[in-house]
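I had to read the description of the data format several times before I understood it. In essence, backbone conformation is discretised, so a fold becomes a row of integers matching the chain in length. I therefore recommend that a typical entry be quoted early in the introduction. For illustration, here is how one protein appears when written out as sequence plus structure tokens.

***
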Amino acid sequence: MLGTAEGVFRQGNSSVCVALEGIELAKWDTGELVTQTAANPVGKQNAIHHGDLQLALLDRAQELEKIEIRFGVTAADVDVETSTVVLSDGERIEGFDLIIAADGVKSKIKPKVCPPEASRAQPTGEAAYRFTLDRSVLESDKEVLALVQRPWAVRWDGPSRHVVAYPLRNHQLLNVVLIHPDDSQAHDVESWTSVADKQEVIADYQGWNPTVLKLVNLAQAEVPNFRMFVHPPSPVWFKGSTILLGDACHAMLPYLGQGVAQAVDDAATIATVLSTIRSSEQLPLALRAYEASRKERVEQIQAATQVARKHLHLKDREAQAVRDLQRKEASEANQNTDVVKMQHSYWAWNAVEVAQNALAKLAAA
């Protein structure tokens, strides 16, 4: 991935990834296995902790010449007219050929590029409890230990909620995510992240299968809770020589696992179009190709996450039974469900080739 593969797959003498064989879907209340879906046929499906991916990117950046990394400060503001960045400590840095704003869903730079209505984050009505469990914590129970030992993700889809668990860091860490309704009415940025008492989480999942409740019981006393926000589709992806990338441009709901994936595709695209230019005069064409390569596709995926959300969180038991039967029959017939087919189309995307074609088309126009 953009020259970071070695760092992603190896850290010291141990792998930081887990090559997943696929995902198991189980009933939320009984824990009964519904189906197993093998990993995508396009390539290996590796699970990696966000922190490990960030370290790999940092290590790769530090290996390259002429890259200066500032620690302890953030980009507080950008003047898109003069290509000036103002740091949080007040320092102004002028004269950039290109500014890439990848500062997340709470982006301070997006309002400089997009109109206010497209820059205002909107609450989704859902939030995610997130925590990790060290392998040593799981060893007292064979059932939960198997979740970190086996190269499979497991997901339980229930009414208005779902839970997913999968191994990380060479099977030494189990990642657990519990999506649930968010009743908070606060819209300010500071309220997006909070902590919940573990007993509150347990109460929230009463009636769920014993495995899910065991996982929550093993968590710390306070469980991080992340409210989920999205932006309307960005009408533009750049202004002047400032571009948006990742969640700063197109925040994704987690139902198709495409948040970081689409940010990586953004990075591959901008790297591809920039590699073709030889002067700043060619930059506008490259940025137009970047937007043309990514905008429509990302908006389609954002819409698809809403479809997946409804599919995962069915409230009616009869509807759940029909969904689970369809999943089981598709698996037994060696077919994939519609949601999995969608995911395969995302994984098979060649961002570099698409960017090259878009650039050639614009250059010929």
